[in-house]
Amino acid sequence: MLFRTMTAVLLIVLLVSCASSKNKQPKAMPHYTLGLSFLQSNNPTLALREFLKAIEKNPRDPQVHAGLSRAYQYKKAFALAEKHYLMALSFSDNDPKYQNNLAALYISMERWDQAIEYFQKAAANLLFMRTELAIMGKGYAYYRKGDYPEALQAYREAEAIAPRQASLHFHIGETYSALGQSDLAVESYEKALLHAPDYSEARYQMAILLLKNQQIEKAKNLLTIIVDQDPRSDWGMKARDFLKALK
In terms of pTM, does the model score above 0.85? Predict the structure, then answer.
């Protein structure tokens, strides 16, 4: 399940400190900026502390509520994250980036239908600048729901917008794999690696498929590359263990 974390993070539209501050009181701005800094350095506890201070200064700022939601999401306080994303939507007149991020939260909460609904809302908004992320997110929600044809349809729509998105090709590959279409899955993983040569997860999943098809030497070569490129990562350690088992 390692790749689930990657997917949830990928689908988030990142908040930026230079965004419009017309609703932000001057006293709240330093806390908001510090909160973003702590989020970017993977310290959600200190981020949460700063965002809560910013909320006290300006309780109607959608960006602060969204930042607070991200901090709660990092700490797996999903109900509180949902509450503040909904407040961000209310105070921003349904800004599509908050719709997208709320949908990504619903992915973490395994509430697939709500994720699909909010990804669709974000994708349909002509002012949203990351349409491909919302469509990809919708496809992933369909995949987790077990509706593989709808997932592939959404992924192909996203591919038309962002054909070089490596993670998109990875998710197309895992969908074909779930459908038992190994050749198409391998082809998609190869496309992912074409656009991101160090994509260890795609290389690992391709190795698993090759092993199932008795292409043992090719699979070993892929696993060896992972160990050489990324030895201390989770995928590097998994690949090393797999190679030992094969011996």
Answer: yes
